[in-house]
Amino acid sequence: MAIRVLLVDDQPLLRTGFRMILEAEQDIAVVGEAGDGLQALDQVRALQPDVVLMDIRMPRMDGVEATRQITGPGRDGPAKVLVLTTFDLDEYVVEALRAGASGFLLKDAPAHELVQAIRVVAAGEAMLAPSITRRLLDKYAGHLPSGEEPVPDTLHTLTEREVEVLKLVARGLSNAEIAADLFVSETTVKTHVGHVLTKLGLRDRVQAAVYAYESGLVRPGAQ
């Protein structure tokens, strides 16, 4: 079955461009468009998309609040949100990730990256490109813990290997890359990631990465 996508952006020209790119793919169907967050909520309820391609800065209701309502408790459907951001990284992206977005993509990304991001998010994975993630976190380094603060109690529920995996997730590594780094199988990595999310009460890898930085476990610029 085709991946059902809802396009949300206040610029019609951009929506048209995204539609042309996505409708060229056999496994993706654009089921609707919205020009602001309020329209997006109505369209999500009516159309039940799999993925919402969400702009952040929009009139009436911005993408952060729309994302929170789409992915939050009592949501009407299983829609995943992929946030669109500008080249210089919108200051609201972190808030969108906290609100429940499954990842973010630059508006000027090549067409094949947009298509791949839709597929990754639809499959239940997080779109957390390492290069963009590092730029984002470096931009907000001053707002994140220095690493000298007390470690949250919840972090102590993780095993030593699970902490290692969390650090690598925070760096934006895929399961395959983590497996190669730790010399274990991808299946083992998936198990560890699942345990991390369950123990910390997190929804996905994006929230795990944000948690790792906010808790001080990982510092911007650290390897």
UniProtKB/TrEMBL annotation:
<keyword id="KW-0804">Transcription</keyword>
<keyword id="KW-0805">Transcription regulation</keyword>
<feature type="modified residue" description="4-aspartylphosphate">
    <location>
        <position position="55"/>
    </location>
</feature>
<dbReference type="Pfam" id="PF00072">
    <property type="entry name" value="Response_reg"/>
</dbReference>
<dbReference type="InterPro" id="IPR000792">
    <property type="entry name" value="Tscrpt_reg_LuxR_C"/>
</dbReference>
<protein>
    <submittedName>
        <fullName>Response regulator</fullName>
    </submittedName>
</protein>
<dbReference type="InterPro" id="IPR016032">
    <property type="entry name" value="Sig_transdc_resp-reg_C-effctor"/>
</dbReference>
<dbReference type="InterPro" id="IPR001789">
    <property type="entry name" value="Sig_transdc_resp-reg_receiver"/>
</dbReference>
<feature type="domain" description="Response regulatory">
    <location>
        <begin position="4"/>
        <end position="122"/>
    </location>
</feature>
<dbReference type="InterPro" id="IPR011006">
    <property type="entry name" value="CheY-like_superfamily"/>
</dbReference>
<feature type="domain" description="HTH luxR-type">
    <location>
        <begin position="151"/>
        <end position="216"/>
    </location>
</feature>
<keyword id="KW-0597">Phosphoprotein</keyword>
<dbReference type="InterPro" id="IPR039420">
    <property type="entry name" value="WalR-like"/>
</dbReference>
<dbReference type="Pfam" id="PF00196">
    <property type="entry name" value="GerE"/>
</dbReference>
<dbReference type="InterPro" id="IPR058245">
    <property type="entry name" value="NreC/VraR/RcsB-like_REC"/>
</dbReference>
<keyword id="KW-0238">DNA-binding</keyword>
